[in-house]
């Protein structure tokens, strides 16, 4: 939730300018904020090489990459913004495109929007929904939310003002959650690719059942999940491959039908489907899962519905600061 304007102004100080960021990257450091609000140099946690780019920011699993500017007061409760705008292919579970403004009316076909709202009711956070980029027009609008969720957005969904606001929000300690086709979004914006953990969508095979392996049950998003569980999804292949993140779950490719296409050969023994990282002062939790509408509508017969909902709800809670992050 948004704190008084003085805190917002402090958060905006996190933008140190392109020249300063580039200079800090050259010497292998990234500008961070000290407790007193003044920029100080901290060592980069990411390897300084082309195989593990840091995107000019402090990123990785080191909590020192988080900027606590005091912009969010737990006493005010927790609130997230669900963004589902598409500028290209649109997943059926999003339903028809939404009208302008905040919280436009939903139809029964807007399954994702209603599903995330229901998760919020069960897990202690309020949900606003929008597909209107004017809700990203200033950082002040985003600082009303503890986390922003991109759920199956597609292509170039943000204009220049929205990109700037999102970056300032992240730098001010905001939370980001990317679900499913969030990986098919903003291909030409390197900062966003870094926010996804140095990863991007390449291709996928037909939707099919697969076995998910939970890698760590210490994290808020994986606590309580079984060691393995089955669900149906599109099982995204990624290029680049995520780096300098904490992997939370994978799919066992041996449980999937072999690809018959001429595209990506698959990830073999290690095919991640969920991970987290600190990024440029904020928190980022992402998953490639979330294709099937039945994850929200058919708990009784759709395999993995309960596990998927727990995974996503925990990811949202941790990115929003409700639970410990990236454990």
UniProtKB/TrEMBL annotation:
Q: Which Pfam families match?
A: ThuA
Listed A to Z, the keywords are: Signal
Gene3D superfamilies the record matches: 3.40.50.880
Annotated membrane-spanning segments are: none
Name the domain of life this protein comes from.
Answer: Bacteria
Signal sequence, start to end: 1-35
Q: In this protein, which residues make up the domain named ThuA-like? A: 114-300
SUPFAM superfamilies per the record? Class I glutamine amidotransferase-like
What is this protein identified as?
Answer: ThuA-like domain-containing protein
């Amino acid at each position: 939730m948004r704190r008084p304007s003085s805190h917002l102004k402090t958060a905006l100080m996190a933008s140190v300018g392109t020249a300063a960021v580039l200079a800090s990257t050259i010497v292998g450091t990234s500008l961070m904020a000290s407790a007193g609000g003044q920029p100080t140099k901290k060592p980069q946690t990411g390897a300084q090489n082309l195989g593990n780019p840091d995107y000019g920011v402090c990123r990785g699993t080191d909590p020192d990459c988080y900027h606590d500017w005091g912009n969010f007061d737990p006493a005010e409760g927790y609130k997230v913004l669900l963004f589902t705008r598409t500028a290209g292919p649109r997943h059926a579970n999003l339903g028809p495109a939404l009208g302008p403004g905040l919280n436009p009316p939903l139809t029964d076909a807007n399954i994702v929007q209603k599903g995330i709202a229901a998760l919020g009711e069960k897990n202690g956070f309020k949900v606003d929904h929008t597909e209107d980029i004017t809700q990203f027009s200033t950082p002040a609008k985003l600082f009303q939310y503890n986390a922003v969720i991109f759920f199956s957005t597609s292509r170039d969904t943000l204009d220049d003002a929205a990109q700037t606001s999102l970056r300032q929000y992240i730098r001010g300690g905001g939370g980001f959650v990317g679900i499913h086709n969030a990986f098919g979004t903003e291909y030409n914006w390197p900062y966003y690719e870094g926010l996804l953990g140095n990863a991007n969508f390449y291709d996928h095979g037909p939707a099919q059942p697969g076995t998910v392996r939970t890698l760590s049950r210490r994290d808020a998003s994986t606590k309580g999940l079984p060691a393995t569980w089955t669900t149906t999804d599109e099982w995204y292949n990624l290029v680049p491959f995520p780096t300098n993140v904490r992997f939370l779950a994978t799919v066992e490719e041996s449980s999937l039908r072999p690809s018959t296409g001429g595209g990506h050969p698959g990830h073999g023994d290690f095919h991640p489907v969920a991970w987290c990282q600190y990024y440029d002062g904020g928190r980022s939790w992402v998953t490639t899962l979330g294709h099937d509408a039945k994850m929200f509508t058919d708990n009784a017969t759709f395999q993995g519905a309960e596990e998927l909902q727990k995974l996503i709800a925990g990811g949202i809670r941790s990115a929003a600061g409700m639970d410990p992050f990236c454990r």
